[in-house]
Amino acid sequence: xxxxxxxxxxxxxxxxxxxxxxxxxxxxxxxxxxxxxxxxxxxxxxxxxxxxxxxxxxxxxxxxxxxxxxxxxxxxxxxxxxxxxxxxxxxxxxxxxxxxxxxxxxxxxxxxxxxxxxxxxxxxxxxxxxxxxxxxxxxxxxxxxxxxxxxxxxxxxxxxxxxxxxxxxxxxxxxxxxxxxxxxxxxxxxxxxxxxxxxxxxxxxxxxxxxxxxxxxxxxxxxxxxxxxxxxxxxxxxxxxxxxxxxxxxxxxxxxxxxxxxxxxxxxxxxxxxxxxxxxxxxxxxxxxxxxxxxxxxxxxxxxxxxxxxxxxxxxxxxxxxxxxxxxxxxxxxxxxxxxxxxxxxxxxxxxxxxxxxxxxxxxxxxxxxxxxxxxxxxxxxxxxxxxxxxxxxxxxxxxxxxxxxxxxxxxxxxxxxxxxxxxxxxxxxxxxxxxxxxxxxxxxxxxxxxxxxxxxxxxxxxxxxxxxxxxxxxxxxxxxxxxxxxxxxxxxxxxxxxxxxxxxxxxxxxxxxxxxxxxxxxxx
Length: 525
Prior knowledge:
It is a multi-pass membrane protein. Pfam families: CN_hydrolase, LNT_N. Helix content is 48%, strand content 14%. By secondary structure, the chain is of the alpha/beta class.
């Protein structure tokens, strides 16, 4: 066989091996996120990709990165398939193709990161630390793009591997979740760089990995020990009705669903604010006087209800539908409300509806209309509150009104679509990161779980797990002063990347100068 043919076969075999390594490494990242949170797998997964990209062309690196992403998302978001089986007769056959297609599309972002890194690294020789910084920067740019392109899907960001580690997640208060991803990936690939280095450089890179972990832990520990503001003295009651998704919208179940929420809400105990989850009332509550009268009977002594409900408004173009949270007082009247602004594609609306003959997965008369954006609600006797409905809580810096800072965040959600899968745990991880980023407690009311009280450090204070029916009675945790990330958003990410590169370039130039000076002195001596 001709040498060029053998060489071509060897190259293809090498690419296939690298893609297989990438796929396995991507799948391992799923175990780094909640509910598993296996921290030791973080350097294993990202270092494997880092090493696997060495000496590859742009196109081959893209394929290896795509294989990594396919493993990461294929195993990481498989639970989305469960939503198709809620109405299996209509959507069941679409489950596997839809999740496979979504995973393949999302895998393009790790592929972009891998190709960008490989191309720049191949064009110019650089030391181990600069290579690690380049990889972390490329990864973070791709994650940021994934969080913004086509409305965005910032799910399972690399930094969420630290969610269950109290001190390590606190860095997000300064640089946000994307910045935490940058630091996580940078530290995670240092062992890979050390494995490829030799001599003194291997020791330097190894020590850098330990220093990075120690610094993040120390800074986070100091933040945890600092004092928060005084608690506001407000008592909450979160109601988790635990209504299966396939039963929730059936007309014959409406009364039973409403009765369950009322029964749980009126159990013995004191509270100031009553919290029901997303679309807890499966109808248009503002149009139902009898239902509002029954709610008013449960809101004695100046209590307030915040509940998720659908809403509709007539317009010149026909009726517009909104996914909202509305506030009611003891008279049963609406005090104020918030309309969800970041809608779920194919769940709450169909993108490019004129071109795509696809039905929505959720019941309803038409697509939802997005609200105007983040909003702070002022309620009598209640600290200022921001509202994020379900999916909205996954978006860093898009939950709070920057001009009117609230004292807490209410996350009304419904994860019943995803059963007892890992999906609700991953969703909860995002809510915990929003608490750290904003320095605000997040109160989460979920239809079937997981309902929680999260303090301003991202710690879970009280919890009702998936599949449980019940209530949480808890005091509203205190807020912290505005974090740097709350004040400057993703500009802090840019500042972190620029500062890291400035430091690394200066350190690299100093090392090269010392080496050159030593060489000159040896020659002259």
